[in-house]
């Protein structure tokens, strides 16, 4: 199919993939509730939270991202793509479950002020995110969410390592398994879109990668949280390159394709941009090492 076809045509072509992926997701997903992992009595009488400030920042940021599900359009776009509304319902419910479970954990462990967290959640819903999954931008949105879910999964995995709590380890492990299924769903849709309209889809991928912002960038207190998360290695530019972008682009065979037509120009832009990020990540890593060496010297003096 020619690469300059309209996105609505692409979406209609994706109907079988959406239906197959939804059936697979429902067969492989596990039904669970926050109370299966977190109960307040686990922590009654315990000392105050031992979570680091970085672990707290990462958990709060991730739960705000998880709970902020936009109101997706269920109009003519959705009716053209069959099982899409059913998938959005399942996916949204699972993300809300993640947010509720992390909230319960933070409150039970006395890691946050529950009133302040409630205010942050309300403010988050007021600020909102740019709503994806609608109209002519849906292809870009599929790419965006595939990357966002991968970022969240990696962030949760590295946060669990910093919590030093078996309850957090089990809970975040469960959330990660859900998120990996989400990544697979959206990444498979992008793969299918590349087969239908390779030029159009690789252009969408390039636009998303070159304009990527971490999930939750517009959330309250995000700048400080992002600094802590990067400083302590939960998520930084190096991880973004090595653990999200490169594996995803390899899965989509972006740099192996010979069917891109005019989209080859976008692919070339993407390759140049990755080289730029690679140099930037190396510079950032060297700077961090120098800062750490200086701090170690001060402590030893």
Overview of this protein structure:
The protein is mainly alpha-helical and 301 residues long. It is built from twelve helices and no strands. It is globular. The termini are far apart. 36% of the residues are buried. Residues 71-76, 128-132 and 289-299 have low confidence and may be disordered.
- Counted by DSSP, the helix tally is 12
Mean pLDDT: 84
Report Rg: 21 Å
- Estimate the global geometry from the Cα principal axes: globular
**Share of residues in helices:** over 70%
Reported for the largest beta sheet, the result is: none
User: Into which percentage range does the β-strand content fall?
Assistant: under 5%
Report how far apart the termini are: 68 Å
Q: Which structural class should the secondary elements be placed in?
A: mainly alpha
Low-confidence stretches: 71-76, 128-132, 289-299
Order of helices and strands: HHHHHHHHHHHH
Total beta strand runs: 0
Protein name: Acyl-ACP desaturase
EC number: 1.14.19.2
Subunit structure: Homodimer.
Keywords: Fatty acid biosynthesis, Fatty acid metabolism, Iron, Lipid biosynthesis, Lipid metabolism, Metal-binding, Oxidoreductase
Quick tags:
70% helix, globular, mainly alpha, 301 residues
